[in-house]
């Protein structure tokens, strides 16, 4: 969504929809808040398999993936059972480990300063 084309009233309404405090904030700051919120939530919304719901992992290059997505891709690629055939899913501990790494990365993104991103 192009927030620059919206009026201050419309921007405040968008902030209210997203539960963002918009009292006594300039238009440029409102736009920054909404853009930051959109960026953070793109990373947060994941489907149950841990993949991004907007773009599948397979269509992006390996370098574009976050660390947790790289680990999940490796787990899927190397997951196999004792007979050497591909297993249905990764080991439960691997899945928990990957999920924890994903949570840590999301926290790091959420609390990072704008210059660190």
TrEMBL record:
Superkingdom of source: Eukaryota
Domain SAP: 2-37
Family matches, as Gene3D superfamilies: SAP domain
Protein name per Swiss-Prot or TrEMBL: SAP domain-containing protein
């Amino acid at each position: 969504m192009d927030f620059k084309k919206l009026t201050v009233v419309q921007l405040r309404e968008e902030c209210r929809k997203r539960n963002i405090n918009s009292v006594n904030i300039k238009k440029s700051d409102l736009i920054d808040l909404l853009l930051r919120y959109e960026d953070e939530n793109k990373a947060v919304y994941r489907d149950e398999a841990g993949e991004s719901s907007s773009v599948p992992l397979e269509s992006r290059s390996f370098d574009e993936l976050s660390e947790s997505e790289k680990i999940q891709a490796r787990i899927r690629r190397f997951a196999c059972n004792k007979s050497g055939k591909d297993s249905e899913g990764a080991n439960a501990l691997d899945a928990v480990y990957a999920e924890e790494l994903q949570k840590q990365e999301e926290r790091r993104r959420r609390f990072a300063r704008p210059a660190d991103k």
